[in-house]
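job 3f2a | input accepted
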Amino acid sequence: MDADTIGFGSGREPKRVWRGWRGGRAWLVVLAVATALVVAAVVLVIAGGPARPAFNARLLLAGMPARGGAGLFLGGEYVWRPGWPPRPEAGLLSDGFSSLLPPGHAGEADQLAPVPGGVVAHISDLSTGATYGALGRVVFIPAVNAPVRVIAWATMIAVSPDGRRVWVQTAVQSMRNGVGVSASFTSPTWAVDLTGRRVSPVLHLPLGLAGATGSGPLTLNLVTGRVQLWNGATGQPVPVNLPAGASFVAAGRDRVIWSRCGDSCLLHVTDLTTRTDAAYPLPPGWQPPAVAYPPPPASFDPAGQRLVLPLNRVDSAGNITAQGLFLVGNGALRSTPGRLRLPPSATATAGVVLAGTWDPRGVLWALATNPGSGYYQLGFWTGTGPLHTFAPAQGSPVTLSAPGPG
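job 3f2a | predicted structure (406 res):
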């Protein structure tokens, strides 16, 4: 199968923070500038600023036309409910503004995760200039038409494998005159249930909540790049034993995904429960994207056997020339069907971003979004046959999730 499938340009550059395993402190200034640019862009749109750029349909997915509903929540400058086209959740977030944020502050739904009976969303406040994340509200959105419930304040969230615990971290709230935090800096971190009741002690963990396991939260230290698992009841560290030189990719379902390159590049999936590891050779020229902010959770199928993961194709000069969705598991790494209508001259500057997730039925969903033009497209794959795609729609979602069962 052709490795160029669903391939396109760069990821969300303004949101990137961690670049490889050994990040430094320069990301603090980058994040502050990027946050200011994002906020300015949101304000311009709402104030009737520059017109939306022309939409180029060749930059999104190609596949068999699909009709009917789409069973996904989408997050970005709105929170969209399932349907086609998905409809904004009334009163929650509108063009980046929300009643959950202080007047005049711009926000974004930058994290969505499935939980029993719906999804949880993190509505970040992009106006705070925080060093890590942006303090905002965590909300539970039922899949049925029922009121949205605010369950916590946080700068970052991570949901346990069963979806019944949401770990939250509050981080820090100012740039401290541009000086970054130290490697030993800790942040209050605890778990709540879907009613907002705290269900764990308040732990003081390294800045960088990156995931949650059945036994506790997982952190990626933003200064040293060290991955650490923590006992959620005692706050004591639990050995992870990743080798030196490992580059964090994602975490989910009690597993850590990481990569390491020598003569060739390998993608590893390490099970933190069984302590087993599976390694997959990456196709030549392809590699995981730089770790983004917020760190995307690893999306496994309902059986927990297959992982969907975006990879970048990089040329000899280090430029990202394409991005593809790949399936990892069952002893193989292979690309998904479908292809972008990408003109030969397009490069990383095309600005299209790809993400994938599974729904409870085992259907794989792909999201291609072009924030520069303000359009996106959804596609789905049943496991056989071609990719099915819906017509492009207006909006710039950055994350997607199907409701959890329950």
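job 3f2a | Residues 1-50, 175-179 have pLDDT under 50 and may be disordered.
job 3f2a | closed
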